[in-house]
DNA sequence: CAGAATATTATGTGCAGACATAATAATTGT
DNA sequence: ACAATTATTATGTCTGCACATAATATTCTG
């Protein structure tokens, strides 16, 4: 016995080792917390913390009374962090640039109205470009609900992106993100400086503050862009 | 006083409320755990649990001695769950289908060798199609290192996808995922039943078991595919 | 024997107290 | 004034105990 696993990370490591080594095979019921605690020479709370962490990673399924078992099909959960674009660009060691293309109050097209559930309201429409080292990096097409973002109408967004302003000044409670690929239209190709029809990575995000829609944004990245995540 | 926040979820709710209501504005230092505990009428451990959860969600930054402050730019962390393709298809209510296109032992092209760090070794190359309701859903192009996946050479992968077999039989310790967009080549278009040059959503994943590479897979999804995630 | 009531059990969570650790602030020595 | 040492402080975590809760197993009852 290598003796005592005294902290929860050590216990977690040992649990992971047993899962990877197939000592606990997928589907297996593992010993209960109390038993593991006495085996590891620590308190049950410590085992609980460790198992909870592993379960959050998707490798264990826990149910009261039923016990803890190794997940049959560990649903890999890639956590991709979506930062402010400026930050993203600067972290790649590039110089960030920003240019406003359009700013208007308009009644949005049907898909946007449907996604934000804003009926006939006119929304603030922002189109802007983000640059990395002078080259187009991403095209931002955003609709903002003034109801959900007080003070937004006073912002020109000529030098600061809506991206950053909203994040700092507008609270939100929930949102959803969709990632997809689409072909560049002629207009998009012109803005991004690529060929029409080029495959572009698209990120569409809706943000809500309770029941009220805040914003919907579609980011079209220049060709070659990829998002990375670890497992 | 709406009286005691007795469990950590209630404390978490209250903390989130204060952040959203800007009672604690971005950048602000919030009271320390002990103070909050006495304010909320619970133990410090309970406040700790709540704050830790909020910090994990990216809304708080915590540092020893420095204290806890509201994140200036809450890095949105979208957690996308990457399940087995069969599962993904069936969850959409579609009938799943699978067809093996190619199975061979080959020395992989340079990019794959570089990504897996396998030098001159020959790897098992699998190309397969996944169907949803009879229509091509995703094209799988996979390289498997027999060193990292014992028993894989005995598998025909004619009716079961490598995707599922590996997940169930091969342990791994880490992996990385890249999401991108790319144009369909003529061959890919033929397999997926779309036009050449169509924008396709691509997912490339490398998997490792400790220091040894297990597999690298590129999934090309049929046009229109999107990945969803919540914030 | 079917179905309802009850007991059992594993996880979920709370508490108070203790010590560990990292980061900052204050003090000291040169 | 500056650098090195020491004190302080907020978070991080462990412990042992208690009770809550959900899910299963068992017993009781018509």
The pLDDT mean of chain A sits at: 91
Secondary structure class of chain A reads alpha+beta
Q: Strand order of the main beta sheet of chain A, please?
A: 4-5-6-9-8-7
Any idea what the radius of gyration of chain A is? 24 Å
Q: How many strand units of chain A? A: 10
What quaternary form is this?
homodimer
Major sheet of chain A: 6 strands, antiparallel
Largest interface: A-B, 55 and 55 residues
The helix tally of chain A amounts to 7
State the shape of chain A: elongated
What is the CATH architecture term of the largest domain in chain A? Answer: 3-Layer(aba) Sandwich
- Named CATH topology of the largest domain in chain A: Chorismate lyase
Give the DSSP E fraction of chain A (strand runs of 2 or more residues): 35-45%
Beginning-to-end CA distance, first to last residue of chain A: 31 Å
Count of domains of chain A = 2
Which residues of chain A sit in consecutive blocks of at least 5 with pLDDT less than 50?
none
Please name the fourth-level CATH homologous superfamily of the largest domain in chain A. Answer: Chorismate lyase-like
Helix fraction bin of chain A: 25-40%
Q: What sequence of helices (H) and strands (E) makes up the elements of chain A? A: HHHEEEHEHEEHEHEEE
Instruction: Look at the structure and give the CATH class of the largest domain in chain A.
Output: Alpha Beta
Domain HTH gntR-type (chains A, B): 5-73
InterPro entries (chains A, B): Bact_HTH_transcr_reg, Chorismate_lyase_/UTRA_dom_sf, Tscrpt_reg_HTH_GntR, UTRA, WH-like_DNA-bd_sf, WH_DNA-bd_sf
Protein name (chains A, B): GntR family transcriptional regulator
Keywords (chains A, B): DNA-binding, Transcription, Transcription regulation
């Amino acid at each position: 016995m290598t003796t005592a696993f005294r902290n929860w990370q050590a216990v977690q490591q040992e649990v992971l080792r047993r899962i990877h080594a197939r000592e606990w095979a997928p589907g297996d019921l593992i010993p209960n917390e109390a038993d593991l605690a006495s085996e590891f020479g620590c308190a049950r709370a410590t085992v609980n913390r460790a198992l909870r962490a592993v379960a959050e990673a998707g490798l264990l399924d826990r149910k009261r009374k039923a016990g803890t078992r190794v997940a049959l099909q560990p649903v890999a959960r890639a956590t991709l962090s979506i930062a402010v674009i400026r930050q993203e660009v600067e972290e790649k060691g590039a110089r960030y640039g920003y240019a406003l293309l359009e700013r208007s109050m308009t009644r949005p097209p049907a898909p946007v109205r449907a996604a934000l559930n804003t009926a006939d309201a006119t929304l603030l429409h922002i189109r802007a470009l983000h640059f990395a080292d002078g080259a187009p990096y991403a095209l931002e097409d955003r609709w903002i609900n003034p109801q959900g973002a007080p003070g937004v109408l006073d912002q020109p967004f000529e030098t600061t992106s809506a991206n950053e302003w909203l994040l700092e000044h507008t609270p939100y409670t929930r949102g959803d993100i969709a990632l997809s690929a689409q072909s560049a239209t002629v207009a998009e190709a012109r803005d991004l400086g690529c060929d029409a029809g080029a495959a572009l990575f698209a990120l569409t995000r809706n943000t809500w503050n309770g029941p009220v829609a805040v914003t919907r944004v579609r980011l079209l990245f220049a060709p070659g862009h990829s998002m990375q995540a670890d497992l």
